[in-house]
Amino acid sequence: MIFTIFAILIAVEIIISYKCLTVTDYKIKSDKIKETTKIVLISDLHNSQFGSKNKRLVDKIQKQDPDLILMDGDMLNEDGKNAQTAVELISALKKTAPVYYALGNHEIAYRQRRDKNLYQKLQKAGAKVVEKEYEDIKVRSNKIRIGGLYEYAFAVDGLEIWLRKIFRPK
User: What pTM value is reported for the model?
Assistant: First the structure.
């Protein structure tokens, strides 16, 4: 009986995670933050769609009125037929705020196995793809450094040099 209840609870949680959209707000205070800035972070959609062309997700993000949108990987599946879901989402979101896209393991595998032009497609849709690089940007009156380092996170080659470059003393 306990096992059955536990299995049902897990199944319900899985269904909720695939079908429901939730917003979690975090407030970060720092002397380095000069002006309130809203950042939306999207992660691990794995080609999921919330409504036709992700309309429910786009609407939920637009209601947050973000200054910046970060996509931190696994927006698609490595064995997916194409990257259309991610491309359409970027195209819709770029009208709301600048979109930065850091790669996950699924994007890297997808690019290696299916489509060498993935980065270009994401950029053409309106995202700034950051991988093994960073960009210093200004959002409101805040200076923000955005970078992508998926491949470095799992390989030692070059990590120390890259980190020194990113966190260099000013």
Answer: 0.81
